Amino acid sequence: MTQPTPIALTVNGRTTHLDASPDTPLLYVLRDDLGLNGAKFGCGLGQCGACTVVVDGRPVLSCLTPIAVLAGRSVTTVEGLGSPDDPGPLQRAFVEENAAQCGYCIAGMVMRAHALLARTPSPDDGQIREALRHNLCRCGTHMRILAAVRRAAGHAAAHGTTGPEGTRS
Amino acid sequence: MSVALHVSRRALLGGGLALVVGASLNRAALAQGITPEAIRPGLPGALRHTPRIDAWIRIEPDGGITVMTGKAELGQGIKTALLQVAAEELSIAPQALRLITADTDLTPNEGYTAGSHSMQDSATAIRHAAAGARALLTAAAAQAWSLDPAEVVFADGAVTAPDGRRLGLADLLGRVRLDGEASGTAPLRDPSTHTVVGRPLPRVDIPNKVAGGPAYLQDIRAPNMVHARIVRPARYGARLAALDAAAVEGMRGVLRVHRDGDFLAVLAGREYDAVLAARALERTARWEGGAALPDPERLFETLDGYEAERSVIHETGRDGAAPEGRRITARYRRRYQMHASIGPSCALADFDGTRLTVWSHAQGMFPLRKALAEMLSLPETHVRCIHAEGSGCYGHNGADDAAADAALLAHALPGRPVRVQYTREQEHLWEPYGGAMLMDAGATLGPDGRIADWAYGVRSPTHLTRPGGAGQLLSARLLAKPFPEPEPKAIPQPEGGGDRNAIPLYALPRARVEHAFVREMPLRVSALRGLGAYANVFSIESFMDELAEAAGTDPVAFRLAHLDDRRGRAVIERAAERFGWGGTPAPGHGAGFAFARYKNLAGYAAIAVEVAVERESGRVRMTRAVAAVDVGEVVNPHGVRDQVEGGIIQAMSMSLYEAVSFDTGGVRSRDWSTYPIARFPDVPDSLEVHLIDRPGEPFLGAGETVQGPTPAALANAIRAATGVRLRDLPMRPEHLKAALEA
Amino acid sequence: MALGGAAVALGWHPALPPVAEIPTASPERIRAGETLAHLGYCASCHDAEGGKPHAGGRPIATPFGTIHATNITPDPETGIGRWSLDAFTRAMRQGIDREGRQLYPAFPYTHYTGLTDDDVGALYAYVMSRPPVRASAPENTLPFPLNLRPLMAGWNLLFFREGRFTPDAARDAEWNRGAYLATALSHCGACHSPRNTLGAEVASRAYEGGQADDWWSPALTALNSAAPPWTEASLARYLAGWDPQHGGAAGPMGPVLDAHARVPKGEIRALARYVASLSGAAVPRTPVDRPVPEDDPAMGRGAAIFAGACAACHESGGWAAGGVPYTVASLGQRSSITGPDPRNLIHVLREGIAPPEHASGPIMPAYGDTLTIDQTIALAAYLRARFSTAGPWTSLEETVRRLMPDAPKPSPAGPGSAQAEARP
C-alpha cells in the first residue's frame, strides 16, 4: 500500500499509466499527475462536493476515491465534457446563465448535474435541488446553477427567476 | 460630499474616550488599508494616488493595449467590468484588450480589493486614463495629418482621417507620450452612445471555470515545485512542547520537516505524500498551554464587560431638550461568523536567494508585499506579490497567512517553488471571523407617529486586522523570533468598521450615535463582507419596523416618511412595487422589508422577502426575495446581479444558520459538519434583482449592498409570520421555537 | 360478557363515537405531552417523509410486508380529528382504532399499554394540538391472510398482555422511572429484543438484540460486546446524541436520538440507569486495532481502500482528541464492526450518514456509487479483521450482494464505454 505501483487509469476516454500508491485519492492524481484542473480540493472529508467527478455515470467524491477502486472503470471530469473554446451543452448552459461567481464549486456542480441528467433527463426543481444538495456553494450562485441545469435539461423557463437583463431605467 | 453631514467634527474628551476626526476622501482611502498617498486629491477615483496614464493603459509595440488594475478578481466579475470600461473609452472590443490585475511589479497600488471600492476607484481611474489616452492618440494623429482632432475617428485600435488615411496604435506609439498625468477632464464617451458599458457581457473567466481551463492559483504548477502542508497549534496561543520530526522525515517522499518556533510544516515532492506526512506530524506534536476563550453562554456579557474606546460618531439636533413621546428601546446581538471560503487558502512562493515571488489570492498585494518583506527582512523591492484567483474570500480570510507560510518555506528552500495548501480545518479554525457585536437602539415617537429622537450605540471589536505589517501574519507570530501582534485599530468614519452603517440615512431631527471600540480579541477577527454594516443595518432596519409597528404605520411607508434621499426612495419604491408589497401572505408565511445605502455613500439596496415558518421546528425558509439596487452607472448588469443574488443568499445563510461554535477550550467549528451553511434545498423559489441604472453617475460597488438589509428583512418577515421579534444573529430554529413556546 | 369475550376473540370491537370538537388543553399539558412524544419518538414513524409532522404515509418494512404509518394529525377526515380521549386511549392500550379495527403491532401498543392515564392524556393533548393535515396513507402491502386485521385478535391472545407498568418495589425511583420510560414509552424492546416467527417479542429473551428496518440492533444485556463496554454515563451521553467512546447513531436509531435530544436530562439519566442495569457488572474490554496479515492480497486491497477512502476521517484520532467531528478514536469502538451482523456496516457504507438540516451533525459520504461489490466485501473484511477478534462474518458476501443490488460494476472489457460517457 505504501509503495507506488504501476496503475492504469482511464480518464475522459484516455488510458494513462502511472506509478502511484493504490490508496492515493483520485483527486491528487487528476490534478497533479494528469494536470486536470476541474476537480478541486475543498475539504478532503467528503463534505463539500468540490471534488465531484463521474465514474461510469455515477457521481463520486474524488477526494475519497482511492485509485485502487478504479480498475476497469472510466472517469469523466469537466475536461471530458468540452473545452473552454468548445464547451459541451451542459457547460454552455452554465456559461449562458453566467452561473459562477468565484467558480470554485462549479466543476463539481457540472459533474453532479451531468450524472443527474444522464439518469433523469427532465428533472423537476425538487429533483435538481436534492441531487445538488451534496455540493456546497458559498458565493450564493445557487439560483443561476439551478437555471443552468434547467436550461441544459431543455426547460423553456430557464431564466424565469432573475429579472430582465440589461435594462436601463 | 454628502458624507460630511454625517460626520461629527466634535472631539469628546475625558476618561478613555477617543478623538474622532471628520473624514475626507483621503482618509476614506486610507481607511481601507495601505494605499499610497493622494498626491492629486482633485483627480477622480484612483487617479488621485496614481495619476499617470500609462500606469493604467499601455500601448504595446505591436499595437495591442494592456489595461492594468491594482484590484483583484475575487469572483465578483471585476475583470470583465474593467475591460468593459476601458473598451468603451477606447472604442475597441473588450476581447482585444489584455488585463493585468494586482501585481506589485506591474500594476498601480490600489491597496485592498475590498469595501466595494473597485468600481469607485479602479474603474473610475481606468475610465479617465483611457479617455486621456484616447485624447492624446487622437491629437497625435490629427497633428500628423494637420487636421483638427474633431475631424478624425478613433476606433478599433486606429485613428482614421476623413479621406481614409489610417494610423494604427503601433504607428502612433512613437508620436505620443502616455507617461503624463491624466487630467481627469478628457472627454468621456456620452453614455447614450455606449455599446459596451451597460451590456451584460459574459464573464471572461467562466468558460475556463466550467471546462477545467487554468483559472485559479491552485492550478499553477511550477517546475520543480514542492508541496507543503503546515501543522497549526492545538488552540490559540499553544506552544509546541514536543515533536518527533525524525519519524516523519523518514516517511515516503518527505523532503524535510520545517520548524521555526511554533511554526511547523512538512515538505514533499508529491502532494499526497505531504498530506500523509502532515497527518503524522500532527500526531507526534504535543502542544501546551493556550488562551481560554469566553464561555459561549456568556458571550455578550463578556463583550459588554470589556473596556472600550467610546466615541460619538454622529450627533444632531441635541441643543434642545429631549422631546416628549413614546420611548422604545431594543438590544440586538450578533455572534461570531466566518467567511468559510469553499477553497481553503493556498499560496505559491519562489525564492531565488535574492528575490521572492509570491502568488496569492489575498485581497491586497501591496500590503502583503510590505508585510512579507518585513517578516523576512528583505527590501520591498526584492519581493513581488502577484494576485491569482482563489475561491471567494468575502473579506480577510486565510489567504494572507497562507502567503506568509509559503514565503517562509520558500525562503528556507531557495531555488524550489513551494506550494502551501491549507486543510479545511485550518481555514475554518484560523481564519479571522466577523466579530461578535452588541447594538442598542432607542427612539422616541412623536405624536405625529414620526421619529422625534434617535439614539444608537454599537459595541464591537475591530473589523480590520489585515496586513499591515508582519505582525498581522499568523505564522510570523509563531516564529522563534516572533513579530508582535499590533494593537487593533478602528476604521474611521465615513467608512467605519464596527460602526459601518451605524448612522442611519434617514432624516432624523435629533440623533446621537455612539461607537464603543473594543480592543480585546478572544477570537481572531477581521473584515467579513459588510463589516459592521451587516449587524448595524440588521439592527437599525429591524428597529425601524419595531417603530413602524408602534406607530401603526406600514413599514415601507414609515421608511419613506423619514427618507429624503431621492435614490434611496427610488429603490424602496421599486422593491415594494415589484414584490407586491401589501398583499396577504399565505398562512405560516410573512413578508418583511429593509433598506440601506452601504456606508451611506455607496450602493443603495432595498429588499422585500417572504418567509415560510414551520412552527414545529422553528425552521424558517426564505421562499421569495425581491431586491432593487442602485449602484450608479451599471457597467455589467450580470456582475451586479451576481453580487446581489449571491449576497442575499449568503446573508440568508449567515443570518438563519451560522455561528462559530466554540467553548472555553477553543473553537469547535472546524469543518462543514460543525459549521453548516445553506444548501440547495434552502434557497428560495424565486429571487429577483431589479437594477436602477444611472448612466453618468459615479460607479458604486455592488458586493456588499444587501449584506445588511437581508437579515433585517428576514427578521421583519418572521415577525409578520409569527409575532416573534428575533433580535439575535443568527436567527436559528431553536430560538424561534423557544420564543414561540414562551 | 361471554358473548363480548367471544366477540373480542374474533377481533370485533365496537366503534367509539366520533367527537365534533377536540377539547383545548393548557400549554403546560401540551408541552408535557410533547416531551412524552419525543420519548416515544412518534414522529419517527408518523412524520410524512420530507414533509408534514404526524401526517403519516411513511413505509415501515416488516418481515411480513410493508405497513404505512397513519395520519395522526387532528384532521377530521384523514387523521384522528374525531377521536375522543377514550378512542385514543384504546388505541394506545389495546391497539384498536376508533372504528374498532385492529392495529398492527408495528405500532407498539404492546409497549404503550404500560403508560399511565395521565401520560396518555398528555399525549392526546399534544397530538390534538398539532396542525391538521389532509393526507391518506397508501395501502399496506401485506400478503393474505396477514392483511386480515381481525386475525390480529388471535395474535393478541397469544402474545399481548394489556396492563399498566408496575414499578419494582426493590428499586429506587430513578430506576423505576427509567424502566417505565423504556418499557412503556421508548419501547426499546421493540427493536432490541428478538421476535418469534409471528413477529412477537420473545419475553424470555428481552433485550438480547433484534432488528429494525433491516438493521441489526445490538443487545442491551451482558451479551453486548461493545468495546469499551457501555456504562450508565456513556449511555446517557449517547442518548443525548453522541458518546466519545461509542460515537453516534446511524440507521433507525438516528431518529430516536434526535427525538431524545429534546427531552429533559433527568429522563435521559433515568433511561441510561435502567438500560445499564440490564447488563450487570461490566466486563472490561479494550477496542481492538491489530495488524492485518500483509501477505493476504484481499486484505491488502481492503487496506488500500481504507487508507484512501476512510482514513482521512477515521484515523484522525477521534473528535474528543481534536480529530474529525463525530468520529471515535478507533473503529474498534463501533458495534457495526464488532457486532455479529455486518448489515449495519454495509448500510452505512452504501448510504453514508446525513447531518440534520442546518445543524451540527456527522456528514459521512455515501460509498454506494464508489465501491463495487467486491471492493465493499474487501473493505468490510479488512475492517472486521483489524478491529475485531470475533472472526470473519460468515454472512458478509451474501449481505453485501443483497443490500447493494445497484452497486457499480467494472466493465470486464475495460473502458470501452468511455466515449459514450463523455458527451451527454
Name a few traits of the molecule:
heterotrimer, A: 169 residues, alpha+beta, Ubiquitin-like (UB roll), DNA polymerase, domain 1, 2 domains, five-stranded mixed beta sheet, disordered C terminus, B: 742 residues, Aldehyde Oxidoreductase, domain 4, 3 domains, seven-stranded mixed beta sheet, six-stranded mixed beta sheet, 17 helices, 27% helix, globular
Describe the protein's architecture and organization:
The complex is a heterotrimer of chains A (169), B (742) and C (424). Chain A has five helices and five strands, in the order E-E-H-E-E-E-H-H-H-H. Chain A has 169 residues and is of the alpha+beta class. Chain A has two domains: 5-78, Ubiquitin-like (UB roll) (Roll), CATH 3.10.20; 89-152, DNA polymerase, domain 1, CATH 1.10.150. In chain A, strand 3 (52-55) and strand 4 (58-61) form a beta hairpin. In chain A, helix 2 (89-96) crosses helix 5. Residues 156-169 of chain A have low confidence and may be disordered. By secondary structure, chain B is of the alpha+beta class. Chain B folds into three domains: 32-208, Aldehyde oxidase/xanthine dehydrogenase, molybdopterin binding domain (Aldehyde Oxidoreductase, domain 4, 2-Layer Sandwich); 217-289 and 342-430, Aldehyde oxidase/xanthine dehydrogenase, molybdopterin binding domain (Aldehyde Oxidoreductase, domain 4, 2-Layer Sandwich), CATH 3.30.365; 525-741, 2-Layer Sandwich (Aldehyde Oxidoreductase, domain 4). Chain B has a seven-stranded mixed β-sheet, with helices on both faces. A six-stranded mixed β-sheet of chain B has the order 12-20-19-18-13-27, with helices on both faces. A four-stranded mixed β-sheet of chain B has the order 21-22-23-26. Chain B is globular. Chain C folds into three domains: 9-157, Cytochrome Bc1 Complex, Chain D, domain 2; 173-277, no CATH class; 297-403, Cytochrome Bc1 Complex, Chain D, domain 2, CATH 1.10.760. Chain C is globular and about 75 Å long. Chain C starts with a helix and ends with a helix. The interface between A and B is large, with 71 and 75 residues.
